[in-house]
Write a structure and sequence with these properties.
Six copies of one chain form a homohexamer.
Chain A: E1 2-7, H1 12-25, E2 31-36, H2 47-66, E3 71-74, H3 82-88, E4 93-95, H4 96-104, E5 111-115, H5 120-130, E6 137-142, H6 147-152, H7 154-172, E7 176-179, H8 188-195, E8 198-200, H9 202-215
Parallel strand pairs in A: 1-2, 1-3, 3-4, 5-6, 5-7, 7-8
Helix pairs in contact in A: 1-9, 4-9
């Protein structure tokens, strides 16, 4: 089984981080390639960024078909171009947000999302509604630290993150927390021990679900939302 | 007041059709420009098509800011790149699907959407959920005729469309019907008389709402879903 | 085009305030009449008040038909007798709450409502549910000042209102705020600048939507919720 | 315990029918008065009719307080002026639609409503949403016979009603059916035996719930939706 | 009429408390038996406890049929084995949580639930969703006192309970509060006077609804969720 | 990694069928034990049956902890005693219905469930609501053949099943179909080819998800819905 893990931005550092996570959990017999898109924004923090990345994501997905991959993991917690990708793909595609949500449903009554910036809270709420999961959603809360602060003081990130999560549990009713921001990755186990909630690292659960369901022969439906686009004149 | 009506595909025929509709209803003192994107698919019938059109839509939106437009109407009933467009825009942007839904809410308890192809029914259901309006949604039904059939026999399109709408009213509880497919445009008045339901032509209602709200100084919120993207390194 | 703006209470002061707002934004070629009901409560602050006003609202609506109006704007943020009015009316009727909600949907992910008294929060929550918009609703919060306080100290109203709105944005996720209480009207622009959220003055957006949609020939559906009542023996 | 059963229309025939039902099930020690409003429409079939009846309903409710009643049952399956009535009332008020819905929840997963005319289906759907019960709602279907047909041929009413109910069960998933139209009253037991579903006669269940909860000292909350209206200047 | 009130745990103290409440409100002509299951946990505080109690509840329900009871009230605010019980029962069964929810709907826009321990908040949220009532649900909050604290200091329970309820009203929008924890029973009237909200004691309202609806001949539907199980080989 | 696949009924034939499915897809390095409960009903077709099976399921789960299993798959498409099992378990537990629903979300906009008997449609609708997934749910439809018919004529089962699924796709908008009834198992691939929809065999996807997530160290949250029950006096 060959799986492509595609980082849909152009940050080599992020790709490396994703690669670290995936290599630790990939089964030895799976051939995993971890790569990034050829061109596009260094990070995806807006729908605008996603629009710029989309053509390069789609190109990489097409290439993956030619290269004989059995499945693709799109490794960004915003599911960029998810519908377009599933439309053109005949092999399974798993994205981080959608898959982490599905896994969260199995672990407790309500889940919360940790995000980085305040305005992303609105975006996450919209996504939860788009996926039809509002009834299982406890809250989204942002770290709300500047990139400078995050870089300068990792210890403080951890402390602030822990405090935000404690409020998700105490005030919002979260039983499961999804680490929707890269700066918290790597602390999941420690936080899980301290806080009691199930803490999900999206890349980990998505990769494993992709590996498992692909092995089982599961494919996305091509008769509705993800129907293959008809060929079309493009000027 | 200067309004840009942007057809987000490259079909001159569609642009002309939109122009006809808009010119009939635009107020004389509004300067309306009706145009289309410079490059991209001839029609938008999939998320994939929309991804291809997006960079050109975004370029046109940026240009509209430089050209001093007061508002933009994005003239396709699939709201392509709607969030990205509103993120980068500081002038109001109105899109056909979203605006037609908002107007439908004012006219009856439940609305239905007429679409062209069967698989688009899933897409429309997803959109209705994304916009949080399932409780006001009666149904979506497709004409389900091939383009060849549609072109060959306009009279039959009308007849089939009428039959589909009658089922929306009788079986689905629709009181308002949105003409979500170009082939039915132009028949709204006649159908409204025959069927009794309110029939909405999205371009008409969206253009008028855009004109009115822009005049009233209404702007979209820039603190959440549509926050202006931070500048970013693009490779 | 002739539009009747009907204040459904008997306060001349409120009618004058509405008239000020409408005259500032009405198009010169529209003939607008701003009036109030002949008899009834001085303000509408309960369903009971609305019941008392209803017969006089309905009489005014009938008269508007005889006087050849093309549309009616019912100028109170509680949509009094909305269904009865639409049932007997064959010309379009736009009400403030419903229309402001529809416009809010176009401007951000979630909207909040500012109201005057604590117990009206329950009423607004019920209305949001009745209109099927809970998924797009952030919160309702009351100023919670007595009329005496409001009258005595306009500067404090502004200050309290600003503080309440800040909480809507910070704690409730509001991106759009509807000024559902008269005492805040007139501050929309200033608040919008300060708080960043889109602030809606219901009379302004409703009047403009009414003007625009009426010009476009839009009418409410008469086959379901607003079917014309059959004549009936009344004792 | 003194209970007032108020028919909110002016049809003596309907009042008599209600009285028959109530007398059969009222406990001997309860003093029940069954009456009708002094003036108003002969039947309530629209929101407009309800607006006309409202002042007379409210007057009767005030009178009931003076006459020392312990509770009021408002005997029409459209809950006319329900909020206004509960606002001005300090004694419990039970209405047919709301109470029948609450009882239906206890008897099966989903309930359907039988109504008389097609356009009332929209009204019932709106009510179900207003009461927040869409998730437990199977469907509403109309008999769709003219009054003439209903009067002329009671046997056919029964036959058509049975056929409609069979479709509610087979196609819509109804387990409980609420007889929301007077012409079917009296057949509940027979239909229940034939169809297997629980069939609810709203006046019966509402009266009994009112009697029971009043005896238990239950009262509606006066701090939110039903807060007592402040006195007000009425012109 | 013979009603069995079944305490589905083995605490004689709880059974006695239930008996006190029921005897105060039962009609003299009703023959009420208040009893408890023969074997099982002393209290039901988890789904696990409920699983252990279930066989004994089911046995008691079967016995009730043989003993000629007309209805059963299952007296625990967690509705243990509710579906299984209704499946095997041909006489009406009323449970505390479900019935209290249905009554709460009649008394205000939103209800809250007072519970004992923090983790039960998740359970109650799940139940509210299972019953399809999220839209009418304000909140659940726990007393969060240890059993030792509750036993040692009844006065403090009352004080903490009052404070928690005040927050339900002020912060969560509750108009009706359901006493979902035994330690608060008996204070309903006093709290209702102090707080203004309607306070429901589940055993009281459920018993009275059971008595009333049974008298009216109401039965649960046996064609769907509660269909009688087919006989089956058990090893 | 050691996984216990527990058939929660006492049919050796079903256990064998499950074993066949699991062995085909289990990874060679996983030690899988497929077994059934020691006592209980031969099949689980009602909540009553589940209540009878529950003590034996719970005993088997406890034993699995002692035997050092890393995860448990509960192999029945009704999730019997799911909450109780997760409460007492500190190792992950995956159940067929819940997991199949989570996987279905990743494959299309809406899913349908094929069930055996008509009355189970109500049960499945309740489950979908309990899991908060109504917005992603297309429909449930029953084969509605007697066991005799199913046994006698497998070819007709296939034919009827295919026809029912075709209606799910054409009339209900299903893109994903979950084989919620054993008689259809084994036909998934063939049906998927014929119908185009994604067809899920619950045991297959659940086993693979369990294997994958357990390997990734994912555990259910123990702070809310699935909190470990306190020890308790049992009589």
């Amino acid at each position: 089984m060959k799986i492509l893990v595609l980082n849909p931005n152009t940050s080599a550092a992020v790709t490396e981080k994703v690669a670290d996570s995936v290599r630790r959990i990939a089964r030895p017999e799976t051939q995993v390639t971890i790569t990034q898109i050829a061109h596009g924004p260094e990070t995806l923090e807006s729908y605008y960024d996603e629009s710029l990345a989309a053509p390069h994501i789609l190109a990489a997905v097409r290439q993956a078909h030619e290269d004989g991959y059995d499945a693709i993991v799109l490794a960004a917690f915003c599911d960029p171009a998810i519908e377009a990708v599933k439309e053109i793909s005949t092999i399974p595609v798993y994205t981080l947000e959608e898959t982490a949500f599905s896994v969260a449903l199995l672990l407790g009554n309500k889940f919360s999302i940790l995000t980085e910036k305040k305005h992303k809270e609105s975006v996450k709420r919209q996504h939860v509604r788009k996926y039809g999961l509002e009834s299982r959603f406890a809250s989204v809360r942002a770290l709300n630290m500047s990139v400078a602060e995050i870089t300068a003081d990792p210890e403080r990130v951890k402390q602030v993150g822990r405090e935000v999560m404690r409020r998700m549990i105490q005030e919002d009713g979260a039983e499961v927390i999804i680490l929707g921001c890269a700066s918290m990755t790597g602390y999941a186990d420690e936080l899980e021990r301290d806080l009691g909630a199930a803490i999900l690292d999206p890349i980990v659960v998505t990769y494993k679900v992709a590996e498992a369901l692909t092995e089982a022969g599961v494919r996305h439906s091509k008769i509705g939302l993800y129907a293959t686009p008809a060929p079309k004149k493009i000027i």
